[in-house]
Each structure stands twice: as structure tokens, then as C-alpha cells.
Amino acid sequence: MNGIEMFGIHWKNPVTTAAGTFNAKESPKYYNPELLGAITTKGVSPIPWRGNPLPRIAETPSGMLNAVGLENPGVDAYIEQELPELKQRGMVVIANVAGHEIEEYCAVVRKLDKTDVDILELNVSCPNLKEGGLAFGVDPKAVHLVTSAAKQHTKKPIIVKLSPNVTNIVEIAKAAVAAGADGISLINTLVGMRIDLNTGKPILANGTGGLSGPAIRPIAIRMVYEVAHAVDVPIIGMGGIMTGEDAYEFLLAGATAVAVGTAALIDPAAPVRIVQELEEAVRKYGDPRK
Ligand SMILES: Cc1cc2nc3c(=O)[nH]c(=O)nc-3n(C[C@H](O)[C@H](O)[C@H](O)COP(=O)(O)O)c2cc1C
User: Fold this and answer.
1) DSSP letter string over 269-286?
2) How many domains does the chain have?
3) Does the beta carbon of 19 sit less than 6 angstroms from any atom of ligand 1?
């Protein structure tokens, strides 16, 4: 499929990785990441986060639950160890930003602003510790505050990545755009739980986890469709994309680009396979943007 322009940045095709599912050391063993439109890296916080106790993964019908807890080595390690290699290879890089308070998001944004990362993606599914741990992304006021605060610390484009665990996704998307978001990505995982029949207790040590994979795709398509009809900024659609035809469906729903997540945990080369399959879908069904 032809390339796209997003915020004046050229992507050779509309496919990126979903945050948390691209590993800078492991993924290139299975495919050449330069073949993707962009690489979205996993959430980085101002200081290293240890993540949640084990077990933190559980299988579900047509999906999986994860409660990794955004384990990451912190923004300084990201800037020193991960970003340079990706940028040296000429890739478009989207850095996913995590925080537990608005100031934590801003601290990461300030540091990334001084690098050659191309785009910042705010993960507003993180718990807002000053507001009792409720995710930023479930409250339009909190989404507005974190977006406008982050915008003050960078001239780089900011994408706000929405949580689907809300009643009215359009209201949240509009709050992000009103605060200056340059783009929207959606959806993050849906909160779920599995219980062990022997112990009667949740399988995940954290209790709940985020549901991803094909099980969530119809919800993601519906939300991308609703948001695309309500705001006028580019959208990166994701949630259960396993094939090029799935990706094509997101473009029909109004996404400018798509991200591949859980599929790459099953078939590590899925992102590049999906680029090829998307080209075939475009030949078969025509240009999705017409
Ligand atoms: C293991 C794992 C780690 C993830 N880490 C992040 C993350 O760091 N930041 C983020 O915004 N989303 C994260 N996500 C959510 C994905 O980027 C994506 O939004 C979600 O999984 C839906 O897409 P999928 O069904 O294709 O996986 C993670 C998902 C998984 C499965």
C-alpha cells in the first residue's frame, strides 16, 4: 500500500507496532523493522518501573489478559540504549509515554523533546495516583489536563492513546483534541479477569488485566468509527488486528494508520506480513479512503 503523511512525516506504509509489543532486541530477529511505516516503542516512565508480580499473562478465548504493569527501564535508558539504533536505521519512531501523575508525563516529554524521536504517544490508561488510582483516560477533564500540560513541553506531535474502558469514547477524544492533541490512537486494552477453578482466586497476581487480541476487535472498530466521525485529526487504529483484511477494516472505519500488537506475540513476523496482506486487500477491495 502507498505511504502516508502524518504530521508532515512520511511513513512508507500505514502500519506500526502497538506499544509494548515491539522489542528492539528480539523483534528484528524475525523481520526487518525498516519495512514498517513506523515503530511504536513500549511505555517509558521518568524512572524505571518494576512492573507487577507474576503471573501477569493469562490466555482467553480469542485473546489474552496482561498485567505487565508497564515494566520499563525509564526514559534515560530508553534515550541512551534503544532510540539511537532505531533512528540510525532511519525509522519513524513513536515513543509511548507513561506516568502516574501529570508531572511524570511532562518529565518524560521534556526529555524526549530533546531527542530525534518523531512522535510522542501519551498512554492515558495509566492510574492517576493523585486521583485514587483511576485511569486518566476515563475522565475527560484529566485527559484535557494531561494533554495540555504535555503540549507545553514539546513541539513534537502528540498522539493521545485512549482507553476503551469508558462509556463515551467520543467525549474523551474531543477533550484530547480540544487540549491540542495532534492525533488519537485507540484502543488500549479492556479491563478483564480470569479465575482459577482450583483456587477460586484470580489467575493474575494483579487480579485484573488488560484484554487484547481478536476478541476486542469489533469494539475497537466501533470506537475508531465513532471517533473518526467526531474529530478532525489522524487516527491510529488498533485492537486485535491479525491479518491485512483486519487492518483494512480499520482504515474503512476511518483510521489513517493501524498498529499490530498481540498478533506479534503469536507470530513475531506478523507486522510485516500484515503490510503485505494489506496491499493485497487494497488490490482486492480498492482504496479504503475513497
Ligand atoms: C504485553 C502488552 C504490553 C503492552 N504495553 C503497552 C504500553 O506500554 N503502552 C500502551 O499504551 N499500550 C500497551 N499495550 C496495549 C497495546 O499497545 C494495544 O493497544 C492493545 O494490546 C490492543 O491491540 P492488540 O489487540 O493488537 O494487542 C500493551 C499490550 C500488551 C499485550
Assistant:
1) THHHHHHHHHHHHHHHH-
2) 1
3) yes
